[in-house]
Amino acid sequence: MTSASPVRSSAPAHPAFPVHPAFPSRSAAPVRPASPPGSDAGPSVAAPSGRPRVTELLLSAFAGHRGVRLPLGALTLLAGPSGSGKTSALRAYEALARLGGGAELGEVFAEPGACVPERARADAQRRRGFRVGCVADGPAGPVRLEVAVQAEPELRIVGERLTAGGLVLLETALRDPGRRTVQAAWHTAGSTPVTRGPLPDDRLGTALLPLRVAGRTPGQRRVLAAAEQLVVALRSVFPCDPRPERMRGPVPTGTGRLLGGCDNLPDVLWRTRTECGRRHALLVDAVRAGCAGPVAGLLAEPYDTGRRVRALLDRGDGTRTDLRRLGDGELRYAALALVLLTGPGVLGADAPGEVPDALRTLTVLADGLDRSLDSEQRVLLLDLAARMCDRGRVRLLGAVNDASWAAGSEGVTVVHLDRD
Length: 420
Hints:
alpha+beta, 9-stranded antiparallel β-sheet
């Protein structure tokens, strides 16, 4: 098990990011190891060569976080008491992923005021905001993204910086508050060292670069490689928090793509049982290990004249148990096991069709990963997650109150948060 604490840092100001309580300044220096001197943190679990992955989450000023860097491995547990910022960290990751997929700022931050640090003071123009970012590693090396967002008086991106190897590849800044654009400058390294132009202030500039950069010079190709690596690393995220109270009854037949709350679990089982017998058999094995009583199968069948479908456990002796009879822990355990054993084609996650399957990695964001689970279920689920993450197709970032039960687990990165 790799154990680490979040790293807090500060750096000189940069003109693209105003010196403002809501936008603490950062340098464009090369990314350094996430672990502070004296930490017992070891290297992150490596992903297979060629697969971009997010290795750090940067919470410079977001909700209750200030100047925090969270190291991320293939399987990471954020551990801390209530109020330590676990949920807000997951929310920041999800927001970056959606922005990387091209979503508009207003769609991603429906309540932007909740993302502003509580004690952040407005400047003379009554502006307040927040700042997030990440580091993505891959064939292009570590690539760092930082985004400054103005939440008040109106929501807009006011600054963005993309760096790699100490070189600023893209930088944007709000120059004219009266226009809904930011001034962007990206690395060219040709006859013109830098190319400048406007970008919209409601979308992530990095995600737009493939549409704006021609790729004719080595500098432009470096910009494209860095931007594409970061976007691919962020895409295919599945926020998951199974809600047992919504999983017990029959559900209408639908797309067969699992929702984040796993409300439509029977509909997904109806699909997976016929489409992928191997993965369904693995799911049955997992459920057999984590649920009370004998389990010979996990079934789905039509209900209410075929308009709905329900799920049942086959006990192997002619008895079938409706899922509504299972405990909260059993339902959450079964749902999380299903998530880890399937993929973007079954989950309600963004699956970029333009990205080769060999480069895709699904990142599961699991809030309250250990909620309602007993000690045995926690260990079984962690073991399943470690095995799936080791294959490189899945990464898991889960929030738990206490990670002592994960002590000694190989391939697990534990990041300890507190309320300070």
